[in-house]
């Protein structure tokens, strides 16, 4: 799922055929998310269209690779259409349950796809957008890219495989990104291993033109890598997280979120002081329950297979609409827009470790 909350559509609803554009050029299947007014937020119909097309291309010998992108220039995909899931739950429907199952299946398809998938991560790549791209073979960022798993901001947890890819970032950087919900830019995305290539946005049109003229010599993946090497780089200087890494590794290895916030507020080291206080203030605005469950989920996910990570996220999903803070977070940020969510519990100090642990009861990490 995701933390995208501003994708409610007014007026006539476009057909799903228009919301996912499909094109084949030079043996490459191009899939374009086409809801730019909603920052390309995913609906269930879009998930199904993407799955259907990927399944068809997997069996088509004429298709050598797939390119994923978003329309509009502002976002690849800023998440899932959370408003529709909120409405489903409030109306007693099951859309929200079906959405998670099929969205995760799509993400898993991309992780295991036998043909190279190239994701152009131009603009916002948040929540459900991250789920689409993190299984891709080639993840391309630009100077406009903003990557993040901001779910805790609406009382949710980073899903769509976040329990797998976040804790596998070196050190505790992934736990920091998941528990805080902060967004990062291109240099940090490359540093964290959440992206593979940097290409300036002004070169994307030229990249498309070269894709159309690409001569297939070697394996498709190597052919695409060779093309990217002519237009992009794989490292950028001055990644902010590189300087913060020692502090992040220290604080986010602490036992629980209350301890993290408490110690962040005690930092006196000059080069970490401002960041520590800003981070503590940010965490104080997030759902305490969502952060605590996220921390536990990511630590468990570090030792689980990809498939079992998705199983764990579904296990949490099935409880979260009733027991978690998502409904209140959406109410405060999207429905009433008072920006004053009444989290339960309201503070980190009121967290009950047994309540947090109960979300993981009866989860069989071996899939039995």
Fold and architecture overview:
This protein is α/β, with parallel strands linked by helices. It has two domains: 16-231, 2-enoyl-CoA Hydratase, Chain A, domain 1, CATH 3.90.226.10; 240-358, no CATH class. The protein has 17 helices and ten strands. The chain has a six-stranded mixed beta sheet, with helices on both faces. Helix 4 (95-111) packs antiparallel against helix 15 (306-323) and helix 7 (173-180) packs antiparallel against helix 14 (288-301).
Topology:
Blueprint (H helix, E strand, L loop, with lengths): L15 H4 E6 L2 E6 L10 H15 L6 E6 L4 E3 L4 H9 L4 H17 L5 E5 L2 E3 L1 H6 L4 E4 L4 E3 L13 H4 L7 H8 L2 E2 L1 H7 L4 E2 L5 H10 L6 H12 L8 H12 L5 H8 L5 H16 L2 H14 L4 H18 L2 H10 L17 H6 L10
Parallel strand pairs: 2-3, 3-5, 4-6, 5-7, 6-8, 7-10
Antiparallel strand pairs: 1-2, 8-9
Q: What distinguishing features does this structure have?
A:
2-enoyl-CoA Hydratase, Chain A, domain 1, alpha/beta, 368 residues
Q: Outline of this structure?
A:
With 368 residues, the chain is α/β, with parallel strands linked by helices. The protein is 48% helix and 11% strand. 47% of the residues are buried.
Shape: globular
Helix content: 40-55%
Count of spatially separate domains: 2
Biggest sheet record: 6 strands, mixed
Question: What would the average pLDDT be, to the nearest integer?
Answer: 93
Strand content: 5-15%
Strand order of the largest sheet: 1-2-3-5-7-10
CATH class of the largest domain: Alpha Beta
Count of DSSP strands: 10
According to CATH, the fold-level topology of the largest domain is 2-enoyl-CoA Hydratase, Chain A, domain 1
Task: State the fourth-level CATH superfamily of the largest domain.
Answer: 2-enoyl-CoA Hydratase, Chain A, domain 1
Report Rg. 20 Å
Classify the secondary structure makeup into a structural class.
Answer: alpha/beta
Provide the low-confidence segments as ranges.
3-14
Name the CATH architecture of the largest domain: Alpha-Beta Complex
> Helix count, per DSSP?
17
């Amino acid at each position: 799922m995701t933390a995208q909350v501003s994708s409610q559509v007014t007026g006539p609803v476009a057909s799903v055929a228009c919301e996912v554009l499909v094109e084949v050029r030079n043996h490459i299947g191009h899939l374009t998310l086409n809801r730019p007014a909603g920052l390309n937020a995913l609906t269930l119909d879009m998930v199904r269209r993407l799955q259907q097309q990927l399944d068809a291309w997997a069996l088509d010998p004429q298709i050598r690779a797939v390119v994923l992108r978003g329309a509009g220039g502002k976002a690849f995909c800023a998440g899932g259409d959370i408003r529709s899931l909120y409405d489903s739950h409030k109306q007693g429907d099951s859309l929200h349950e079906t959405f998670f199952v099929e969205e995760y299946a799509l993400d898993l398809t991309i992780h295991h796809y036998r043909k190279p998938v190239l994701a152009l991560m131009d603009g916002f790549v948040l929540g459900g957008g991250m789920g689409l791209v993190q299984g891709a073979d080639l993840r391309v960022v630009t100077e406009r890219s903003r990557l993040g798993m901001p779910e805790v901001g609406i009382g949710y947890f980073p899903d769509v495989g976040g329990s797998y890819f976040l804790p596998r970032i070196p050190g505790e950087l992934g736990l920091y990104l998941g528990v805080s919900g902060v967004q990062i830019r291109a240099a940090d995305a490359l540093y964290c291993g959440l992206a593979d290539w940097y290409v300036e946005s002004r070169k994307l049109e030229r990249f498309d033109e070269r894709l159309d003229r690409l001569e297939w010599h070697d394996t498709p993946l190597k052919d695409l890598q060779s093309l990217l090497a002519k237009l992009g780089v794989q490292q950028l200087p001055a990644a902010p997280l590189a300087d913060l890494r020692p502090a992040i590794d220290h604080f986010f290895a602490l036992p629980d979120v209350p301890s993290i916030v408490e110690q962040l507020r005690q930092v006196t080291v000059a080069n970490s002081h401002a960041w520590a206080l800003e981070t503590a203030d940010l965490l104080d605005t997030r759902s305490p329950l969502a952060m605590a469950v996220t921390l536990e989920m990511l630590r468990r996910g570090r030792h689980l297979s990809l498939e079992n990570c998705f199983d764990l996220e579904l296990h949490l999903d099935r409880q979260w609409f009733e027991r978690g803070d998502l409904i209140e977070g959406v109410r405060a940020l999207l429905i009433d827009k008072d920006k004053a969510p009444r989290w339960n519990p309201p503070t980190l100090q009121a967290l009950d470790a047994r309540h947090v642990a109960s979300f993981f009861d009866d989860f069989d990490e071996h899939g039995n």
